[in-house]
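User: Structure tokens for this complex, please. No commentary.
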Amino acid sequence: MDSSTPFAHASEAEMARILDFYAVRWSYEPETFPILWNLDGDVVESFSPDFYLPDLDLYLEMTTLRQKLVRKKNRKLRRLRELYPGINIKLFYERDFRALMLKYGKVALADGLSGTLGQVAAPYGDPAPTAAIRATDETDETDTPAEADSGDIPAATVSTATTSAARRRNRRLARAAAGAP
Amino acid sequence: MTRAPDLHADVGEILLTEEQIATRVAELGRRISEDYAGRPVTLVSVLKGSLPFMADLMRAIDLPLRIDLMEVSSYGGGATESSGLVRILKDLSATIEREDVLIVEDIIDTGLTLNYLVRYLRGKNPATLRICTLLDKPARRLVEIPVDYIGFTIPDQFVVGYGLDYGELYRNLRFVGVLKPEVYAGPAEAEAAGV
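Assistant:
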């Protein structure tokens, strides 16, 4: 797999390493699904699952932030399932990620990768960071209309747009961490 | 300071007693004996966790059977895990081509290891390949794999005993129990558990 994949969150990079370890093929944010349109028919909200596992025909969405934000993601997921009933998608919560780390004897690592502490992803090929930048806990890791996977991007749009979104998200978080407006 | 393990005190709750396990293993053995109806079967146990289950299950099956053992590396189990690939640490000792093969697992949670194993064993052209697990934890499933024989479906808790370990300990418990969070607590678990 491409070691330059710009993961938005360190837990996603760790998940990619786990999938690679077990020889499960994946692609990162390969598709964006519109889930809400305005009266003019423009897409105002969309959803880009973090991973697609082609051998399993499964989308995987990871969320490691606070419950309030998880609820927002749950809502988007329900909407996605309503609109695209043929899609097989699983939401991987923080507790799931922690349990996975526990299973693999990496509980301490889970503390560094969960929530906002993990917002700055290590390069995919490298081990997870031992120190992560603190960002505001109010930051929403979910896709928002303000980000790239929004209105003017059709459903078929793939990785170039979504990886740009991840890069913008990382820059925004880095600015927040540095105290910039 | 490192916490010293205490085999029994570290278990907060007994999920499955020795008697419950024995009863269920006997039932599974009967079902497997009926399903294969006199055909020889090869049981493939996945080390290390499934050893006690394998030992009990094979004696509950009234069929001509062979056993074999496999061990695969686990993510996080080695120094180079971050960029590594799963490895077969111990391969089958005999061919399974055109054999009826039953994989014997201790627990299925994500299904990642089992998925790898099934693909690997299918490549060896067995006549049939089925799966038997003592414990199924569907809440954690990432890879959906049809499981033919399930001992118990358990809740989403970290369990040890009857072969299952935490840090290679607790395998020798005769029951399956839930490990106390403070045994493995990171800050989040400790806070949630009030420790």
